[in-house]
Structures are given as structure tokens and as C-alpha cells.
TrEMBL record:
Residues 18-158 form the Ferritin/DPS domain. Belongs to the Dps family. The lineage of its organism: Bacteria, Pseudomonadati, Bacteroidota, Sphingobacteriia, Sphingobacteriales. InterPro entries: DPS_DNA-bd, DPS_DNA-bd_CS, Ferritin-like, Ferritin-like_SF, Ferritin_DPS_dom. It holds the Pfam family Ferritin. This is Dps family protein. PANTHER family: GENERAL STRESS PROTEIN 20U (PTHR42932). It comes from the Bacteria.
Length: 159
């Protein structure tokens, strides 16, 4: 795809695509952490958290696909190896085996806060590039993450 075919300038899009790829890498690490939490949650909150983690990883998987497709729309290739994800992500992997259920929630809260910060930075970059399509997409992702962050913080009384 040529960015000109959607009325965008390639030069302005370079930082957008770079940041989209970084966000993609972070979402992959976040997604895998959510899967681990879903598989390994134990304790009094099992039924609540098992379902919540599934909801969150399902959303993360959809987000990953939308990010990759947007990168392709802008004329570049998305990261597609675990090496790329680990190398470019700020979010760190976590071993969820034996992790306390509340600690799992706190780890996801930390991820969401990191993703929200990255998304806010990306909104500035997309605005400068006059890329309203990416801006709208990222804004929707951020709004979802903000709501989930609020809900999970309420769950652990972390106001």
C-alpha cells in the first residue's frame, strides 16, 4: 500500500509506523501475560478473574490484529517474531505459574498503565502526521484500557 493512496505523506508516517510496531510488540507480551493469568489463576476469585482475563486477552488479540493491519495499510510490515516482540516491548514477561490472583491483577494494571501511556504518546504523533485513521483507532484502544484499568483498580482497592 502506498500512503499517498489514502492521502497521507510517507515521510510523516515513519514515526507513526515505528510507534505502532512498538505498541504491537507490547500488546503481544501483554496478551501472553493475560493468557498465563487465565490459565494459572487460583483462589477465591477464580471464577471472576478467569472470565475477566479471557475477556481481556480476547480484546488484546483483536487489537493485535488491528494494529498489524493498520501498519500494513500504512505501507510497512508489522513485527511478527517473538524476538521482535521481546526486543521492542517495554512491558516485561511474567511467569504466572503460582502467582497470587491479586498480584496477577496488579501486573495487568501495570501493563494497562504502560499501554495507556504509549497510546497517549502515539496520539500526539498521529496528530502531527495528520493520520486521523490511526488516531481514531488508538483512541478507541486507549478508552477501553482506561476503563479496564479503573475496573481492575477498584477490584484490588487501588484507587
Amino acid at each position: 500500500m502506498n500512503p499517498k493512496s489514502i492521502s497521507l505523506e510517507e515521510k510523516k508516517l515513519r514515526p507513526v509506523v515505528d510507534h505502532l510496531n512498538d505498541l504491537l510488540a507490547n500488546y503481544h507480551i501483554h496478551y501472553q501475560k493475560l493468557r498465563g493469568c487465565h490459565w494459572n489463576v487460583r483462589g477465591n476469585h477464580f471464577f471472576t478473574l478467569h472470565a475477566k482475563f479471557e475477556e481481556l486477552y480476547t480484546n488484546a488479540l483483536t487489537t493485535i490484529d488491528e494494529l498489524a493491519e493498520r501498519i500494513l495499510t500504512l505501507g510497512k510490515s508489522p513485527y511478527s517474531t517473538f524476538r521482535d516482540y521481546v526486543e521492542h516491548a517495554e512491558i516485561q514477561e511474567a511467569n504466572t505459574i503460582g502467582m497470587n490472583d491479586i498480584d496477577m491483577v496488579k501486573a495487568i494494571i501495570d501493563d494497562l498503565e504502560a499501554l495507556i501511556a504509549m497510546q497517549r504518546d502515539l496520539l500526539e504523533i498521529t496528530s502531527e502526521a495528520e493520520d486521523e485513521g490511526t488516531n481514531d483507532m488508538i483512541n478507541a484502544f486507549m478508552q477501553f484500557n482506561e476503563k479496564q484499568n479503573w475496573m481492575l483498580r477498584a477490584f484490588v482497592n487501588k484507587a
